[in-house]
Amino acid sequence: MPVPAHIRQDVPPWTPPNTEDVEALPAGKWWDAVRAAPTVGERALKALGDETGAVIQDKHGPLYWLIKVGSVESWRLRQVRVLTELADESTYLGVPPASWTEGPETHWRVPLSADHYLTDTWKLWEALAEADRAENGRVPEGRQLCFRCKLPTDEPIPVDVEDGRSDVGKVTYACPPHAPLYTRRQPRTLTSAAAAEHEGRLR
């Protein structure tokens, strides 16, 4: 006699209903989701290791983790978004069939399984917060103007701008949509400076 699916240990509690193509499914029904830009998401995924749940990677690069419904509404992290049901509108996530586990199209970067479904919200936040600091440095005080569009942004990303107009020692910022147009300015820390000097001595 077969064991019912709801008590079998090898079957995830939810699987995508779609089997042939990516389908827009509503956040807030089975799960909420957290979207991270590729650079931040890759760092967080590596930091989580086996503690990550299922992860979707869309064809443009961002990573999406599934989390418990209602476990968080928003996080003040750069290039990170929480997808949840809002009072006045629905939010959708493009979900591929469970069998799509390889790119370059939208696919399950970490396949959905009984062991990899929802990611612990607090552990995910810790991994993303650390990835944000590693990629973008400390968040400056107050809002900053984007170098490209000249509009204030709450998610300032340090960039290198070679135009001869930037003040020496002054950090130039861009908003998330415009940051990819410039070279990322890597944060300098005592640790990274010492490591660079050490590597220089070894050459």
How large, in whole angstroms, is the Cα Rg? 20 Å
Average residue pLDDT: 82
Apparent shape: elongated
Oligomer: single chain
Give the spatial strand order of the biggest sheet. 5-2-4-3-7
From N to C, what is the helix and strand string? EEHEEEEEHEEEEEH
Structure overview:
This protein has 203 residues and is an alpha+beta fold. 20% of the residues lie in helices and 21% in strands. The strands form 4 sheets. The chain has a 5-stranded antiparallel sheet. It has a 3-stranded antiparallel sheet with strand order 11-10-12, with no helix packed on it. The radius of gyration is 20 Å and the shape is elongated. It starts with 22 loop residues before the first strand and ends with a helix.
Layout: helices, strands, pairs:
Layout: E1 23-26, E2 32-36, H1 38-48, E3 55-57, E4 63-67, E5 80-83, E6 92-95, E7 107-110, H2 121-136, E8 144-145, E9 152-153, E10 157-160, E11 172-174, E12 183-184, H3 190-202
Antiparallel strand pairs: 1-6, 2-4, 2-5, 3-4, 3-7, 8-9, 10-11, 10-12
Helix pairs in contact: 1-2
Task: Provide a quick synopsis of the model.
By secondary structure, the protein is an alpha+beta fold.
Q: Any key phrases for this structure?
A:
203 residues; alpha+beta; 5-stranded antiparallel β-sheet; 3-stranded antiparallel β-sheet; 3 helices; 12 strands; 21% strand; disordered C terminus
